[in-house]
Specification:
The complex is a heterodimer of chains A (293) and B (337). Chain A is globular and about 60 Å long. In chain A, 72% of the residues lie in helices and 3% in strands. With 293 residues, chain A is mainly alpha-helical. Chain A has a single domain, classed as ABC transporter involved in vitamin B12 uptake, BtuC (Orthogonal Bundle), CATH 1.10.3470. In chain A, strands 1-2 form a two-stranded antiparallel ribbon. Chain A is built from eleven helices and two strands. Chain B has 15 helices and two strands. The longest helix of chain B is centred in the C-terminal third of the chain and has 28 residues. The relative contact order of chain B is 0.16. The chains are: A mainly alpha (293), B mainly alpha (337). Chains A and B meet through α4, α9 and α11 of A and α4, α5, α11 and α13 of B.
Chain lengths: 293, 337
């Protein structure tokens, strides 16, 4: 077991926090989709990886200057979101509230995306470019902080702030909240809940794919990353609470820290320590810590 | 035709079909034999899930858990204990999956609908996490190799044909037991709970206990398929027990037809042939598998057996309508008046 001193602890905490930030980008969309549509979206991580591949293409076309990172985030997220809205409109909407049908169709799309990625981008492992000035570390008091990790934290905070404002303070947010609380009544007062659901699916996938663009310079872009990160996304959403934005923040931080510290302290049982509390929380409070019934 | 004799007829056809399977399989090449045996192993898994999903209406994404306990207990016993017998392996695998299901049932049964799905999904992830990271016990990512099946009454099961017959035997025993279960009053009660739990409660049934027992029985039978799987492949790794395994079991039930028992077995055969046979021809066979998931749900929600039954009912209706026509022709006077 590693000997812990303050330096180790600070480094590990910083790593945990930046990992939590990436998990928030990945899982906040999953949580929002579940909250509004009650869909268990098993294709979520596939969209995350597809975002990474989109960024790869964007970088090949327009190069890798500093300004191409936000462009890749918007373009990658946007294209994948459009694809997901097509899937929602023509496949998921037809299934109604049949949870098993949703699970199987989203898994089906995850498999199709898995192989399509290999056909389009080959099965090679890519590590996306980290543009200047994010390619280096800043050393403070003898501890080096990779700037890209700091950027991930910043991006997550920004996304959280925008989402929070949009959901709590805008008319569109009010419509979404109304659809969550009582879809039937929302339809009754003239809200087109079909369009709300399609937009929310698109938004959730946009966040995930954008997370994939950011994560592509961190986890890399290669087949199989999707099925690797999917359990983490569910851990975040379940621990935090299904459909709650605050829950996604708390869940990301809990999972980010537990994974990093668990792997350092007791590597063999780290996944158990991560997933077992998830099962316990669900057994005690099925909607998760911050979820509403 | 009375209900009993039509049921006997169904049983006869199922026995005839598996008799035929047993007769022709030795003539196939080794690879095809292995696929058939794999299909039988997963058929046990799919049928056991059908008890929960088809008959009781509890959609579980954690069926890979019992499969994992069956498979890993077999792997560890065979590789660590010298001269371990089949009886011990099945005893350990069944006992362990029974205990695990008995424990998880307490946690899960309270949850309904999508929350049941989520909690069983989290069970899947806990067990996968253990298989993947707990190196000292499970071998981690490398898995456990060299799981040679012990002999049965002095007959070596290391021969693929012998193992096929052994698996077929275990499969038929499971099918028989599960058939008796769903035809019993207990099985009828499960269907009643699926159709209207509140009503069954009103009638005085302890629905929690029935669902719990279905959960435990279903999990225990899934353990059997894990034991067989480990011995068949002689190798077990975390990729065998990941979330996709549980989802695949769901697909098998949905594809074959829920609440038909034989349907999920057919579904298992189709998925296994896609996985191991089509993949030898088409490199990008995940595209085909993905499309199978989507097409099953969009066009065959009631499963293949459901489709066939629908077709038969349609034919029967046609035959009855057809039988009515000559009667009309025989009495032309009546029509004229």
């Amino acid at each position: 077991m590693a000997v812990f001193n303050l330096k180790n602890f600070i480094e590990l905490s910083f790593n945990s926090l930046s990992y939590a930030a990436l998990l928030f980008l990945l899982a906040s969309g999953l949580s929002i989709i579940f909250g509004v549509m009650r869909i268990v979206n098993l294709a979520h991580a596939a969209f995350f990886l597809l975002g990474g591949y989109m960024a790869l293409t964007v970088y090949r076309v327009i190069g890798t200057a500093f300004w191409t990172l936000p462009v890749a985030m918007v373009v990658g997220g946007g294209v994948v979101a459009l694809l997901s809205m097509f899937i929602e409109r023509y496949f998921l909407r037809r299934l109604g509230q049949d949870t098993v049908a949703q699970v199987l169709v989203t898994v089906g799309f995850a498999f199709i995306l898995f192989d399509s990625n290999i056909i389009i981008w080959t099965g090679d492992n890519y590590m996306l470019h980290r543009p200047w000035p994010l390619d280096d570390s800043t050393v403070i008091g003898g501890i080096s902080f990779p700037r890209y990790r700091a950027f991930m934290i910043l991006a997550a905070v920004l996304v959280w702030a925008i989402l929070y404002f949009a959901i709590e303070r805008t008319r569109a947010g009010a419509i979404v909240r109304a659809t969550v609380d009582d879809p039937q009544m929302a339809r009754g007062i003239g809200i087109n809940t079909n369009i709300v659901q399609m937009s929310i699916y698109g938004l959730g996938v946009f966040l995930s794919a954008m997370g994939g663009v950011v994560g592509g310079s961190f986890l890399g872009v290669s087949p199989g990353i999707d099925f690797q990160v999917l359990p983490y996304a569910f851990a975040v959403v379940i621990i935090g609470g299904l459909g709650s934005l605050t829950g996604a923040v708390v869940g990301s931080i809990v999972v980010g820290f537990m994974d990093n510290f668990g792997t350092a302290l007791f590597p063999e049982l780290s996944y158990f320590a991560l997933f077992a509390p998830m099962a316990i929380i669900l057994a005690v409070k099925p909607t998760g810590l911050f979820g509403r019934g | 035709m009375s209900r009993l004799s039509s049921e006997l007829k169904q049983v006869f056809w199922v026995i005839a079909a598996f008799g035929a399977l047993g007769a022709v399989t030795p003539f196939f090449d080794d690879y095809t034999q292995t696929i058939i045996t794999r299909a039988l192993v997963f058929a046990i898994m799919a049928m056991s899930l059908d008890i929960l999903m088809g008959y009781t209406g509890l959609r579980s994404m954690g069926h890979g858990v019992y499969f994992a306990f069956g498979a890993y207990s077999t792997a560890i016993l065979v590789t660590k204990v010298k001269g371990v017998g089949l009886l011990t392996l099945f005893g350990a695998g069944l006992g362990l999956s029974f205990l695990v299901a008995a424990f998880l049932g307490f946690l899960a049964i309270r949850a309904v609908g999508v929350y049941f799905l989520m909690i069983t999904l989290s069970f899947s992830m806990v067990v996968w996490g253990l298989a993947y990271r707990w190196h000292t016990v499970t071998g981690g990512d490398n898995g456990i190799a060299g799981i040679l099946p012990p002999p049965l009454f002095g007959i070596s099961l290391q021969n693929p044909v012998a193992f096929f017959y052994f698996t077929l035997g275990v499969f038929l025993i499971c099918l028989g037991l599960l058939y008796l279960l769903v035809k019993s009053p207990f099985g009828k009660t499960l269907v009643g709970i699926r159709e209207g739990e509140a009503r069954m409660k009103m009638l005085g049934y302890n629905t929690w206990l029935h669902k719990y027992l279905a959960f435990v029985i279903s999990g225990t039978f899934a353990g059997i398929s894990g034991v067989l799987w480990a011995m068949l492949n002689r190798f077990i790794a975390p990729t065998d027990v990941e979330l996709v395994t549980s989802v695949e079991a769901l697909l098998m039930v949905a594809l074959g037809g829920p609440a038909t028992l034989v349907g999920p077995a057919i579904g298992a055969a189709i998925v296994m042939f896609l996985r191991y046979w089509v993949s030898t021809f088409i490199e990008r066979w995940y595209l085909i598998l993905g499309a199978t998931y989507i097409i099953t749900i969009l066009y065959a929600r009631e499963g293949i057996l459901g489709k066939v039954e629908g077709l038969l009912a349609w034919r029967k209706a046609g035959r009855e309508a057809g039988a009515a026509i000559p009667r009309v022709q025989k009495q032309p006077e009546e029509i004229r008046t």
